[in-house]
Amino acid sequence: MDLKDRRISEWKRFYESFKFAWSGIFQTFKAERNFQIHVFITVLVCIGGLALHFTKFEWIVILFLVGGMLAFELMNTALERVVDLVTKEFHPLAKSAKDAAAGAVFIYAILSVIIGIIIVSNHF
Ligand SMILES: Nc1ncnc2c1ncn2[C@@H]1O[C@H](COP(=O)(O)OP(=O)(O)OP(=O)(O)O)[C@@H](O)[C@H]1O
Prior knowledge:
binds adenosine-5'-triphosphate; Helix Hairpins; DAGK_sf; transferase
């Protein structure tokens, strides 16, 4: 394989990885109610931000929060899938893995709501 072919296959791999990532997001959106709720909240927050004229800094914080929330939810789904793949039986470790991941999502969600309230209350 010459240099040009190798470069094309590098780009192809790069493009494929985007395709897989998008497929993961799309599959999760189709299958997970929580993810759908988070996407809906993200849209609402963005509309609210436009209506309230968030500052640049506020947008940066908000985008980190909603983006982080969606990313956390995707990781949580990934972990649930792996646990289900490993065992369909009741197992204390499966429970502890899933509950810990759910706890991570919960902590981030609570912090996001608190920070969101602080930002929005600034505009009233
Ligand atoms: N194999 C298992 N062994 C023991 N406990 C489990 C097992 N699978 C799930 N659980 C428990 O049941 C809860 C619900 O698991 P489930 O796989 O339905 O995910 P979930 O929390 O409902 O998430 P989602 O609604 O996003 O799918 C887990 O948080 C865990 O406490």
